[in-house]
Fold this protein.
Amino acid sequence: MKRLERLTALLSFLQSKRYTPLVAITQKFQISERTVFRDIRTLEEAGVPISFEKGKGYFIVDRYFLPPLAFTLDEAKSFIFVEQLARKYVDQETFRHYATALEKIKNKLRGKQLEDIESLESRVGAYIHPEYSPKYLHVSEQACAKKQILQLRYKDIKGVESNRKIEPIGITFYSQSWHLIAYCQLREDYRDFSLNRVIELRPTTETFFQNHLTLSEYIQKLENS
């Protein structure tokens, strides 16, 4: 990768995160720490206000506006494949937000690029079993972000219904279903809830402050058990 391309990619990488640790940059671009320092200094000299917070990493100062970076045609095409999966695997509200974002990307394309995208759209599709109907994904995502306690009515794999209050820690997808991982107040332990078996899921006005396992820690714990 040429240096100008790397600087552009680094700027995009910094924009995509609140904080970017030094090690994340060296690993992504396969460069030394010294090269990172030199690239950061170049961006600062170009007028990008980059700062560093110990224990967290680099960040772009709040309220500084950076114009959106242009997508290459191949980058834009990759969104078409994701769109087909999103159309089948997420709920309507989540897909509506994705579709709006994709429209904004297409608005940046011109001429032959837009023609290529439209041609690809007509040739890409995803088949999912018609009984699959994702729901509650958006409310789960919101609750995870806000640390919001959820009221859950659930039917387990044996067909037994229960009402619970749960503290969500993350969402994962496997076995053709989205799963909400949460601390269950009833069982006083972490539980895996398939969204396909949720009867009702609604947010409460309560939040939780307990430092739970992260999603990756929970999965690693399962793998090691």
Summary: Residues 73-121 form one domain.
